[in-house]
Amino acid sequence: MRAWQVRSPGPLESGPLELVEKETPTPGEGEVLVRVLTCGVCRTDLHVTEGDLPAHRQRVTPGHEIVGQVVGAGPGTTRFTTGERVGIPWLRRTCGVCRHCRTGRENLCRRSLYTGWDADGGYAEYTTVPEGFAYRLPARFDDATAAPLLCAGIIGYRALRRANVPPGGRLGLYGFGGSAHLTAQVALAQGLEVHVLTRGEQARRFALGLGCASAGDARDMPPVALDSAIIFAPAGDIVPYALAAIGPGGTVACAGIHLSEIPALDYQAALFHEKTLTSVESNTRRDGEEFLLLADRLGLHPTTHEYPFEEADRALQYLARGDIEGAGVLRIAEAV
């Protein structure tokens, strides 16, 4: 099969990705083999490719927002039938027995594994997944629009919950890419007032078109005091701005797996008045199931930009520019 792999992590300008021929994977016990139809292009793929995250697998194939068809199965599989459409997310496996797994916090499992980081992902014609970690997808979403739901959507949903926004409250979104544009739709549907702060003019226009109350630069103060904020941009220097923008008792949630260094914080100015600074680590399968049901019920509209499979590197370059509308998606194959 054809697959992209990270030849050597580094800046996109150095050409870290290469398109190669690999052996089609064989599903192990409890796994299914999936023919990849589409794969979303997520910022975490960029972190894996450029080396912001430490390499967990040499020459890994990135991609963890995967939509495909089951075409094979390993021993002991019972959940899916051949030809069924499934979604493969970032979270690939957890131990199931640690105190975090046993208390509904499997996203904190220290032995967790991840698609496109610990195991080859969806920038390929075929991949495998443990059947218990794959999702059935709402029929409402076609193969391209379903892809960003599987990480951008799910992580945004968990970040929104972690942000602890009061009913009818004011929410700030720092950065406005694939995850934020879906989170904004959920927040607006819940009656929240959404303010976007991002560097890109095109992204700001996009946010206003979705119904957000304001859109300014990431280092501007919003026009009103916020109750909560979510930082999607991987820029730690935004944290003090977000903390300054929220009122007493507010929460700032950092949604990314990678964040550059946070400047020193003055306790009185940044954190006093019971402000909370928190993070988001992956998601649980319950988060995923809840979000997909919610996305279906609300009729979310993921905005996607489709790229041919052969242009994965160009799709990552588009993402890296930052001033984007929605999410990039690789088209690998058509459903049969």
TrEMBL record:
Its cofactor is Zn(2+). InterPro entries: ADH-like_N, ADH_Zn_typ-2, ER, GroES-like_sf, NAD(P)-bd_dom_sf. The keyword Protease does not apply. Its EC number is 1.1.1.1. Keywords: Metal-binding, NAD, Oxidoreductase, Zinc. It catalyses: a secondary alcohol + NAD(+) = a ketone + NADH + H(+); a primary alcohol + NAD(+) = an aldehyde + NADH + H(+). The keyword Transit peptide does not apply. CDD domains: CAD2 (cd08298). This is Probable alcohol dehydrogenase AdhA. It comes from Raineyella fluvialis.
